From TrEMBL, chains A, B:
Organism: Formosa algae
Top-level class of the enzyme under EC nomenclature: oxidoreductase
Cellular component terms (Gene Ontology): cytosol
GO molecular function term, any single one: alcohol dehydrogenase (NADP+) activity
Keywords: Oxidoreductase
PROSITE patterns: ADH_IRON_1, ADH_IRON_2
Domain (Alcohol dehydrogenase iron-type/glycerol dehydrogenase GldA) ranges: 9-175
Domain Fe-containing alcohol dehydrogenase-like C-terminal, chain residue ranges per copy: 189-385
InterPro entries: ADH_Fe/GldA, ADH_Fe_C, ADH_Fe_CS, BDH-like
Protein name in the entry: NADP-dependent alcohol dehydrogenase
Pfam family, one: ADH_Fe_C
Amino acid sequence: MNNFEFKNPTKIIFGKDTISKLSEELPTDARVLILYGGGSIKKNGIYDQVKTALKDISHVEFGGIPANPEYSVLMKALKVIKEESITYLLAVGGGSVIDGTKFLSSAALYEGDSPWDILKDSKRTEVGMPFGTVLTLPATGSEMNSGAVITNAETKEKLGMGGPGLFPQFSILDPQVIQSIPQRQLVNGITDAFTHVLEQYMTYPAAALLQDRFAESIMQTLLEVAPTILKDSTDYNAASNFMWSCTMALNGLIQKGVPTDWAVHAMGHELTALYGIDHARTLAIIAPSHYQYNFEAKKEKLAQYAERVWNITEGSIDDKAYAAIEKTESFFNQMGIETKLSKYTDDFDGTAEIIAKRFTERGWLGLGEHKSLKPEDVEHIVHMAY
Amino acid sequence: MNNFEFKNPTKIIFGKDTISKLSEELPTDARVLILYGGGSIKKNGIYDQVKTALKDISHVEFGGIPANPEYSVLMKALKVIKEESITYLLAVGGGSVIDGTKFLSSAALYEGDSPWDILKDSKRTEVGMPFGTVLTLPATGSEMNSGAVITNAETKEKLGMGGPGLFPQFSILDPQVIQSIPQRQLVNGITDAFTHVLEQYMTYPAAALLQDRFAESIMQTLLEVAPTILKDSTDYNAASNFMWSCTMALNGLIQKGVPTDWAVHAMGHELTALYGIDHARTLAIIAPSHYQYNFEAKKEKLAQYAERVWNITEGSIDDKAYAAIEKTESFFNQMGIETKLSKYTDDFDGTAEIIAKRFTERGWLGLGEHKSLKPEDVEHIVHMAY
């Protein structure tokens, strides 16, 4: 097991009808900015629950944060924060709204020339404006971690940021919100969380027995509840396990003491930036090719995953490992996710070269758990995913 | 899944040679009281590592905190805290030293007449004197939770305390400390951690699929590493998984959203108070009888545990459930732990009645996950454990 440090101070408030607890978590003298997305919270009743809970707390609103939170939109929200003397941010939404709120938490206290530098120069946020979240879409785990990914439409870039100042003070997780999520988003959420676990698990054996079993537990649980959720999103037992699995998939716990990969995300982000493909779907496009291309380096963990998560007990290590990649791809397919780029765009020719070139230009010269994947490897992997 | 709240702000610093990081975690202007036990840290080098790390930080020491931290000894430490104007506590030890330090953290800021009232009246500690830990004995999980159990030799009582103010600010976990732990303590640690998981798992199915799998993961890992650790405690892979499993067994995570039992601990504490039997061994004495006595209420989870942890796949639910109890008892026996009270004392006659009477007098009238076990049930269970 590798040495590690772990600290996650976010308070989780989980369960039925918990949104009403919101006011207990906010300072009574706070001036709150509520941030949300396209307005679905006004149709499904979450907005009303939040407004009721905040009736005695001073607040204003900023809606319209898009999927893949866009820098130019967030800069408008930053203007509101300054003009309205906001002291506390409240994200009501999924990963995009929460990630956007994290950027604002950092930017609100940033003293440099341009907040874009936080992303461009990978500036770590030690202290941000305090914020909480009401999660409306389980998927990214952003509700209990200190990372965010922000998109710049102008430059077609997706860049990450983070730091200990960006943990939510609290996150309210009411699994009942799942009832009003469109099927497409549910499928994306399951795929996103599942792939998060793979990124922290599908590397090489590192004698981290407990972390391996925790990672497998999350994947087993997601596989177990996925069919129920997609058939009946009012099933509270399935919804609550789905929601908690998404949070646990990326709250830092399973990555501690183990090597991590994240090459699937690095390549996937480029597909979203270039073609606007849903984040989760880009992961499902890249993952199978990535594991095939890096088969020798990953086959021991692929075989362990085959045995423990897919109950594949017959055959050699290679047999099991291949079968596990196939099982993973067909799991995505069965949920209705296409795993080839050509199913999303006719304009895919040259994509592999473009992405490889971008990595070279940005100086991203070593991806994966060994930091050994070069732009030419990226080119191969993306090609395999056509 | 039940509703829950979860917040655990303790910073974990885990791995080889991490004790040297101690000074980074303490405020530079702190006046530190180092608390430790019987002095084994002076033989195994841990004391020297701590002293080296604290060379530039003002500190005094208080040694001699016994196993099952004793109120009268802690009151002497409290006097030192006041006389020396201590601002920060540092526990260097196992669960007893850490639990004692938690009591002192609370008592140092307590404004009532007698600190014993914190225990007697179950007063929740919202704010305590800040403290950190250097863990020398993996077992209790006290290094990453906010609970403590204190013993009063005079009244032969063991009472619990807790509250959000009692999380360590940081805990340093260097698995190399395991090398110098006597076999008896290692066996106790494995048994203690394993039983902690059972208390939070062996109840009834509550549709908490992920929590169940996490609990099973910890037990599987403990079973996997136990033989290696007992054979060769210098095996770092086994030691690190053992240490991290003990912490995860009782840091709050696996108990969230599920019913918990803790009757084994409630009865076990009485055996320690009456006979001075090692805490872990009292759990191994009580657990098998407890599960047999409450078989009908627990058999579904017992059967799930049989399948997933012990790979018992044949037979009816009852068959599997019984087999799991047997496997658990023989796991304790194989490590050299006797699971009958009569192996520890000749003076056991009447113990069941005494313990039942104590529960009645204290008003502890409903133990277990259904709060349905009455003193007469306790009497039966302890009798079965003779």
